[in-house]
Structures are given as structure tokens and as C-alpha cells.
Amino acid sequence: MSEAAPVVPQPTRRKPSFPIRDELRDYLRRYRRERELPVTYARLRAFHEVIPLVDDQGQPTLWDTVIYDPGEMAALNEGLKEVYAALKVDGDLSVVRHLYVDRIDFCTFGNSTPFRIRIVNAYNDNQDYFYVKRADASRVYGLELEHLLSPNRLSFLTHGDTLVEEHVAGVPGDIYIRDWLGRRRELKPIRVAKELVKFNERCFVRLLGDMRSYNFVFVVTPDFEEAQLRIRAMDFDQQSYDGRKNFYLPQFFKDNLQLVQFCTRHLRPETASQYRREEHTLMLQRAALASERLGRLLHEMAEDPISPPDKVQRLRAALAEHYQRGEYLRCESMGALIRENLESIRRTIGRPPVPELLPE
User: Which of 28, 35, 226, 239 has CB 3.0 to 4.6 Å from 142, enough for a Cys bridge?
Assistant: First the structure.
């Protein structure tokens, strides 16, 4: 990560939503991501009233709490409990009977205009969240690639035009910058900088774009001597759509400038290169462990027009120059570019060839 890096222009138009094709739906069924669900996104849109939601300091948020017809509420709440059970415990309702739906919120910000469901345990008041959104193929690819190529596992389900996602817990990046960065003694600066470098590299290789600070979270885990840290993406709308190479590098967003400066202060270039190499090695290990599943996913992605040809051509030219490999110029899809990225990092560390991920 470099402090002198230019700033990427922000998106000026909302990315279109792409439908889930039958071939991708078959993939989702194969790996039990596609299920019959009692509550759909369209059903949740039938609310009658909204109440602005404020935070603990009384400040407005981007969310509104929605209210439904009294005759619908009981059935809707039971249906949402079933959805939560499908997401968390493979549909076993016997272990969630003590839960109840405490609140349903709606957000008009962003591409997915999601609903956020707050579920509360009646025995101990512990709360959890999940999200119901309009299904978008780009986002589905992003979620699945996160599950396969990152150190994080993700639970999500689809049903027709509905996408259900688990909540990714952590400190939002913009809040971390404001309240935590350089202020928490339990977090060694070198560990923070190391994770920033690794997160930056993961996003670039798997082409996850628009990772501005409010689109990822910091997960802090206390350890016996020092706290551990991991950065997790929580927004996957901009998976493999944009044609600008720097759009897939979090270091180039002005919202992340303080993080870049922090890395520059605490990491030598040689150390940053070491951490990038470590993450490359781990990504190739994950790809090898999930080679059949990843191959099927990238095959469907290669056949899916989730980005216009001009954007694919612009990005492949930039990646060919970045990695100094002309093989990129033969790629006709975003799925093929991700496969080529994995091949590029394999070549830099002398690993055995990457298994063929795009079957004929």
C-alpha cells in the first residue's frame, strides 16, 4: 500500500442489477444455497408505514423501521424465524422456537435496498441480524468467492429474486478510522498494517471493487497476549463489474487514505511484500482445496454477462500490463480474469500449476 497512490474516481452511476441465470441457479442448488423460503423480498416491500431509526446518540441513520398490517405481522414474523433457521441451522425450527423478531428495518441507500431483520433470544436478550435483499448475480458471485478464497466463511441463501445474507459483525471501517486507529493499545500497529496489506491483496486478486471504509469491517479477537485482527468485506455489489484496475484496490480510495498512511508509517516495503506473498500462498491453498467448486463457479461466471465487454477489455489490458502477462488479452469475461489472476500469483511464488478452473 502506497501513500502516494492516486485516488480512484467514485462511481457516478448505480451499477445495474443482473438476474440469476438458470446455470448459476443450478450451481446454487448443487451447494444448497438455493432454498424454498417462506418470506421473499417482494413480500417485505408491502409495508404500510416507516419510522426513521436513530442511533444511541439520537442521530439519524440510513435506516427506517417499517410497520406492516397487523393481520400480516404474526405470519410474517413466523416466516422470518423460518428463514433465520434455514440460514443458521439448516432449517431446524426446534432450536429457534425461543427467538422472536424484534424489528424490521429498511434502507434505500445503495444498490440492494436491503431489509435488516433483528432477531432476539427471549431467554437472554441476545440479538442477531440477517438481511433480505433483491437477488443480484454480481453479489452472489461476490459472496461465493469470499466464501471460497478468503479466510471467512459466509452463509447466504437465494430463492427466486430474493437473497438472504447473514450479518457480518465487526467495527465498520469508517468508525474504526475515527475511533480506533492508533488509539487502542491492545492492537499492535504492525498487526493492523499487516491485515490491511492482506485485505488489499485479497480484493485485488478476486476483483472485489468499491472497498471504501464503510464497506468493510474490522473484527477484533482478544488473544492470550495480544489482540488479533481481521478485515472482512461486507458489501459485494461491486464484484467484477468495473473496468478500472484501481477500483479493485482499497488503497486507492480517498476514504481509506488514513489507513494507507498508517501502513506507510509502520511497514517497510520488504515487509509489505512478505505479507502480500503470504496472502497469495493462502489464496492458492484455498483455491486448491475448493478446486472443483471454484472451477464450477468461475465457469458460470465466465458465461454470465455481468460486465459490459468494454469494461472487460479495459480491465484485461490493465491487468496484462500490471502482471506483464499477455495471456490476459485472451480473456473475454470477468471469470476468466479472476482465473488468470490466480495463475499470475502462482507464477510469482513458484507453486505447482493452478488446476484448470474453467472447464470446457
Answer: 239
